[in-house]
Description:
Blueprint: H1 2-12, E1 17-18, E2 21-22, H2 29-61, H3 64-71, H4 74-101, H5 104-139, H6 147-157, H7 161-176, H8 181-204, H9 209-232, H10 249-280, H11 285-321, H12 325-352, H13 354-358, H14 365-378, H15 386-397, H16 402-427, H17 430-463
Antiparallel strand pairs: 1-2
Amino acid sequence: MLRSVLQSALLRASLPMKGDAQNLTEGSLHYGIFFFSLPLIFSNLLQILFNVSDIAVVGRFSGSIALGAVGSTTTVVALFTGFLIGVGSGVNVIVARYMGQRNQEELQESVHTAFLVCAGVGLLLCLFGEGIVSGLLTLLKTKEELLPGAVCYLRIYFLGIPALALFNFGNAVFSAAGDTKKPLLFLTASGVLNVLLNLFFVVGLHFDVEGVAIASVTAQYVSALLVLLSLRHAKEAYALHGSCLKLHRGKAALILSISMPAGLQNAAFQLANLFVQYGLNSFPAIVVSGHVAAQNADALVYDTMAAFYTACGSFIGQNYGAGQMDRVWKTYRISLLYAFLAGTLLGSGIALFGESFMRLFTTDPEVIHAGLFRLHIMGFFYGCSAIVDGNLAASRALGKGAVPTAILLLGVCLFRILWIFTVFAYFKTLLSLYLLFMVSWGITGIAEYAYFRKAYGEAAGRVA
Length: 464
């Protein structure tokens, strides 16, 4: 049923299909981007279901201390997973470009090199995370009563990082080919498994924090295995074959030149948010738990918006490779508009029904009250972040990664850190802590837009 609905939608979008791949250089962009993004939205939401279901289960069945312990790791988890998602988006750009050029040899070399690059990055991040977990949480002044559970959760969770890296590799390849259905189906299966295992370990075996961590890691390896098996049996030129695995230095350098800035882009937000967590930890544990529960809205909204950024990268990548700069510009405008509307509507809905949202994670009235304060400040402004991420995705799809990342590091990471030690340090209120998000979006977004206009003009000149 799901397959027939999606194929019907793609037919309406007039996107020619070859096997499971799609030609994104033809047809309606309004329909094409929207229906291309729908499976990505569900895929992204299912991907964050791992951590969100962990928080919901421990919050409902193990109490506020367990909720705070797992929730205190959210920013750290997002730092690592965000980096890997960024790396995957870089793979998406390169693969989509060679698909647009119809260059099968270059495409095959890129896919197999990308697999090795992503596998290596995932393993290194796993080892790095295991080595710094205790020191990092202590440095962030995690509450003493929350620290043991937080350390335990992260030590287990980091074991799943290599699987997450490989899933994002496969997801990037399929998305570049215009096939967003397979990753959705794989994440659906692993997401359901994650929830069932959470309930089994926490409610059935009373494993608490350890249980939800084991459930997440198991689900991540299942999703990675499914996506790799699907690539192995694919009939298209982007299929993955063990005999073709070879690290082509030129391709690796190209992939890293796009992927590393993209990964740093995503990580920069979370790196800055570590300092937000530092400021938050100066408040009582009840406030921290309320923030943790409310922060789940961030993942729901941002990952919904991120689907349109992935679509932006795939459509721009193929059309830039095909030399169709008019469709590049239209893709940029449409995807940015869709992302803004998605963020504004979803964020506003969560803010308006904030109490019901909070009760998904806790029944403690004080925790709910603390979380509602954050939702009512942040909810109506989520869409404004599109001006940052949308322009970044578009610049990266044109092969420009270093300068946009530098702008992001200055406008988001450095600015937020300075805000914590100046404005927040002076007022020491939750309002002064949360306002830094909106201010940094505005400053950084204007600079990113100016740079994309410049990059687009240069790219159009080369194509002409």
